[in-house]
Structure formats: C-alpha cells, structure tokens
C-alpha cells in the first residue's frame, strides 16, 4: 500500500482512517465490521463509525442479512461519482459567491509550484489582448494548450525562450534566447505581471502585481531584450 494512494483518496473527501479501510475493502471484498477491525487493527468503535461515514460518502454499499456487512463501491465509480458531485457544488459556488474585484494595488507573493501554475493558467485564460511570456522549455511546455488557445482566439502572443517548438505555432511572435532555468516573466494585457521561480517545489516563490510601475519596468526590460536579439 503506497502512501500516495492514501493521500490521493484523502483528496476525495476521505479521512486517513477511512482511506485505509476502503483500501482493505478493495483488497478483500465483502466484510463485516469485526473483520475490518481484525484486518486493520483499528478499534471496533472507530471501524463502525468509519463504515457508516464511508457508506454516506458513496465508497461502500451496505449488505443487509443475518449479519451486517459492507462491500466496496468500485474505485472507478466512487471517483467518478465524487467528481460529479464536486462539479455540481462548484457550479453553485460560482453562481452564488460574491464577485471578487481584481486588486491591482500592491504586491502578492504566491508560494508553491501548484499555486503558481494555477495562477499562470488563470492569467493566460483571462488575457483579453496580449501576453509576453519568457521562460524555459520545461515551464512553457506545461502551458502549451493555454497558449495555443490564445492564438486561436487571435490574441497577441510574444514568447521569449530557447524552446524552438513554439516558433512553429501559427501566429506566434517568437524570439529565441537563452533563459534562466526555472525563471518566469509573464505580462498580461500590460496590466498584470508575474515573476519569480517555478521548479516544481513547494518552496517556489513568485511575485504577482498589477502595479503599473512594475508592469512598465518589466515591459521595458523585455523590450530591450527583444531589441538586442534583433540586432
């Protein structure tokens, strides 16, 4: 049993104990609470509480008979059903949540590779006119779909990189240059910037801002670099 399997099941609204019990069911099939406690070493009182919770969360089916037993919902079905429920809730949240104003003042520090990647995708998806994106191959390749979507919608896309594959995309403005490993410079609509480091680590840090001073400073730096490349 891998720890990653348990962690991923926890992401599907199971507690660590529930994840352990669900995995036992997947391995053994139909079991009673007594059998689960024997297999896992978890106290019977905790087992019975977890079994009820797992049934409510759609991970187990209750089998009525002379003795109460449970059987696991196939993992594919459990995952699909959970995702479907989350999607329904997500739509309701989007509909009912207050509209957030984009804060262009100040500077926001974004920590962790996943959070930075999510912010980059949000910025690319929200671009209305143009983007300037300077990064290495490893970073750019993660956002190829979003960049291709921008090109399809006829947005201006300027890329500075050593990733030659992007030079072949129709409509792109590509400047080949050596880039610093794991470094990113992104400007969207001359209004927002993101700059910093993204290497896949939880310790990665980027600065995001709508401060016009910083936007102008980064625009000027990229403009100068483009001019030098054209000489």
Can you walk through the features of this model?
By secondary structure, the chain is α+β, with helices and mostly antiparallel strands. The chain has 2 domains: 3-94, Arc Repressor Mutant, subunit A (Orthogonal Bundle), CATH 1.10.10.10; 107-229, Endonuclease Chain A (Endonuclease, Chain A). Helices cover 48% and strands 20% of the residues. It contains 9 helices and 10 strands. It has helices at 3-10, 16-28, 33-40, 44-56, 75-96, 113-126, 137-141, 144-152, 212-229; strands spanning 31-32, 60-63, 69-72, 107-111, 130-134, 156-161, 173-176, 183-188, 192-197, 205-209. The strands form 2 sheets. It has a 7-stranded mixed sheet with strand order 4-10-9-8-5-6-7, with helices on both faces. A hairpin with a 7-residue loop joins strand 9 (192-197) and strand 10 (205-209). Helix 2 packs across helix 4 (44-56) and helix 3 (33-40) packs across helix 4 (44-56).
- In the CATH hierarchy, the architecture of the largest domain is 2-Layer Sandwich
Q: Can you tell me the overall shape? A: elongated
- Regions with pLDDT < 50 over 5+ consecutive residues? none
Query: How much of the polypeptide forms β-strand, as a percent range?
Result: 15-25%
Supply the helix-strand structural class. alpha+beta
CATH topology of the largest domain: Endonuclease, Chain A
Distance between the termini: 59 Å
CATH homologous superfamily of the largest domain, by name? Endonuclease Chain A
SSE series: HHEHHEEHEHEHHEEEEEH
The biggest beta sheet reads: 7 strands, mixed
- Number of individual domains: 2
């Amino acid at each position: 049993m891998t720890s990653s399997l348990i962690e991923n099941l926890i992401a599907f609204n199971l507690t660590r104990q529930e994840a352990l019990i669900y995995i036992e069911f997947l391995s053994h099939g139909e079991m009673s609470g007594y059998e689960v406690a024997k297999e896992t070493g978890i106290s019977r009182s905790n087992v019975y509480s977890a079994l009820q919770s797992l049934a409510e969360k759609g991970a187990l089916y209750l089998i009525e008979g002379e003795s109460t037993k449970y059987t696991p919902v196939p993992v594919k079905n459990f995952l699909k059903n959970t995702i479907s429920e989350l999607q329904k809730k997500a739509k309701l949240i989007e509909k009912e949540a207050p509209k957030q104003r984009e804060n262009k003042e100040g500077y926001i520090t974004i920590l962790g590779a996943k959070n930075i990647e999510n912010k980059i995708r949000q910025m690319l998806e929200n671009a209305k006119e143009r983007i300037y994106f300077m990064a290495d191959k490893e970073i750019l390749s993660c956002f190829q779909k979003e960049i291709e979507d921008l090109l399809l919608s006829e947005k201006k896309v300027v890329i500075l990189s050593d990733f030659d594959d992007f030079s072949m995309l129709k409509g792109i403005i590509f400047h080949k240059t050596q880039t610093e490993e794991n470094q990113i410079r992104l400007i969207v609509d001359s209004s927002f910037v993101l700059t910093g480091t993204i290497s896949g680590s939880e310790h990665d840090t980027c600065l995001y801002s709508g401060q016009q001073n910083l936007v102008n400073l980064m625009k000027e730096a990229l403009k100068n670099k483009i001019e030098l490349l054209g000489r």
